[in-house]
Amino acid sequence: MAEAVTAVQSPPAGAQAVQRALGLLHCFHDNGPDLSASDLARRMGLSVSTAHRLARTLVSAGFLEQDEQTARYRLGPAVAELGQLTFHQRGLHLAAPELDLLSRRTGAAADLAIRSGPHAVILVGASVRPDTGLGLRRPLHSTALGKVLLAWPRPGDAGVSTLGPLPPFTDRTITEPGLLDEELAKVRESGYALNDGESAAGVRTVAVPVLDGAGQARFALAVRSTPAHLTDERLDWFLGHARSCAGALAVLLLPPDQRI
User: Fold this and answer.
1) What is the arrangement of strands in the sheet containing 109-116, beginning at the earlier edge strand?
2) What are the alphabetically sorted keywords of the record (predicted)?
3) 125: helix, coil or strand?
4) Which alpha helices (H) appear in the chain, and where do they start and end?
5) Which stretches of the chain score pLDDT less than 70?
6) Closest CA to 86 of 128, 123, 139, 129
7) Which terminus of the chain has a lower count of CB atoms within 10 Å, N or C?
8) Could you tell me which residues are beta bridge partners of residue 193?
9) From its phi and psi, is residue 133 left (phi > 0), alpha (psi between -120 and 50) or beta?
10) Phi and psi based region of residue 107 (left: phi greater than 0; alpha: psi -120 to 50; beta: remaining)
């Protein structure tokens, strides 16, 4: 009897081109200067001709635009339009008044973030630049926002073991995966995460999850101040205000059938 041959499934036609095109767009994540085809090729590990061809395709679709004088690329109007659309579809324009109220009540900066790979991306709040509308991308392991998103992951979110090296930002940063797992267990038990000078000296942050009905963190909400203002004695007071805000945000941002 002939042995059965297991067929090797090849990627769908065009999948590699799509992955490369998306990777090219991600090259602009750092909000840096315009990029040349050589810059894109180097970041993507592609030949310059391939990077140029992909970039020109994205220009024709409006996802990139090219400066006529320098020939460098920047994100195009289609990306801006989709960004605004998803911002409103998620209801995030409704979150700003709640964060402003939380900030006024606590005298601390307030931020709302989601997870994007190994980062917490701040979408609304004090860390969003008023001139660009862009928020910060913060490492998960060294921030209260990131710890919350790691502690209550959504389906498909990678765990601590996939984050790679955990770089130190201060002498308090957790850099060992095992210790980070222990910290996340404490976060889940207490219901909040604390960043006590782990990302920057002189900064203290407490964060809570905005949970859905499945017990997953759809967002992380943080209040940030100094150790002199956000003291141990006042921590429960800050947490009370943060949790109240998180409850209001769950009503604003989650469909009724997905709320707790």
Assistant:
1) 137-139, 119-125, 109-116, 217-225, 204-211, 193-196
2) DNA-binding, Transcription, Transcription regulation
3) strand
4) 15-26, 37-44, 48-60, 77-89, 95-106, 144-151, 177-190, 235-253
5) 1-13, 31, 131-134
6) 123
7) N
8) 207
9) left
10) left
Q: What angle do CA 132, 142, 30 make, to 5 degrees?
A: 30
CB 124 within 8 A of CB 95: yes
Backbone angles phi, psi at 205, to 5 degrees: -135, 140
The Cα 236–Cα 185 span in angstroms is 19
Cβ atoms < 10 Å from Cβ of 101: 15
pTM assigned to the model: 0.80
pLDDT in tens, 13-38: 578 888 898 999 989 877 678 999 99
* Predicted pLDDT of residue 88: 79
End-to-end CA distance of the chain: 57
Buried b (16+ CB within 10 A) or exposed e, 65-91: bbeeeeebbebbeebeeeeeeeeeebe
Q: How far is CA 204 from CA 183, 209, 220, in A?
A: 16, 17, 16
Asked if residues 65 and 59 have their Cβ atoms less than 8 Å apart, the reply is yes
Q: Are 34 and 24 in contact (CB under 8 A)?
A: no
Residues pairing with 73 in the sheet: 35, 66
Locate 27 and state its tokens: 């090259």
Phi (first) and psi of residue 18, to 5 degrees: -65, -45
The C-alpha atoms of residue 23 and residue 254 are separated, in whole angstroms, by: 29
Instruction: Give the Cα separation of 152 and 175 in Å (integer).
Output: 20
Residue 48 CB: number of other CB atoms within 10 A?
A: 14
List phi, psi (to 5°) of 217.
Answer: -80, 105
Q: How far apart (Å, rounded) are the C-alpha atoms in residues 222 and 55? A: 37
